[in-house]
Design a protein that fits this description.
Helix content is 80%, strand content 0%. It is mainly alpha-helical. The protein has one domain. Helix 1 packs antiparallel against helix 2, helix 2 packs across helix 3 and helix 2 runs antiparallel to helix 4.
Length: 95
């Protein structure tokens, strides 16, 4: 998750600097970079956190993380990987 956040921050900063006329060194720009990095980090990290939490709580039921992810996808669909993402977004985007 941290790797995604760091890359997203740098890439969004480079995009604003090279593709727009917006001041890329202003405080609102830094807030925007952090917001983008937080959202992308959560979108990539939340599915792993969901599987990890289920394995910690009911690991014997699944046997492996892949079985857990497969069962989650089959029973709850793709959006099941993003349950509880709102608190994570609030936390990451506020950094």
């Amino acid at each position: 998750m941290n790797a995604v956040e760091m890359v997203a921050y740098d890439e969004s900063k480079d995009f604003v600097r090279n593709k727009t006329s917006y001041d890329s060194e202003s405080i609102p720009a830094y807030v925007l970079y952090g917001f983008i990095a937080g959202v992308l980090g959560q979108l990539c990290g939340n599915p792993i956190d969901i599987v990890k939490t289920r394995m910690m709580n009911e690991g014997a039921k699944y046997g492996s993380a892949m079985n857990c992810a497969r069962d989650l996808l089959k029973t709850e669909g793709f959006l099941g990987f993003y349950k509880g993402i709102k608190p994570g977004l609030w936390r990451c985007c506020s950094f």
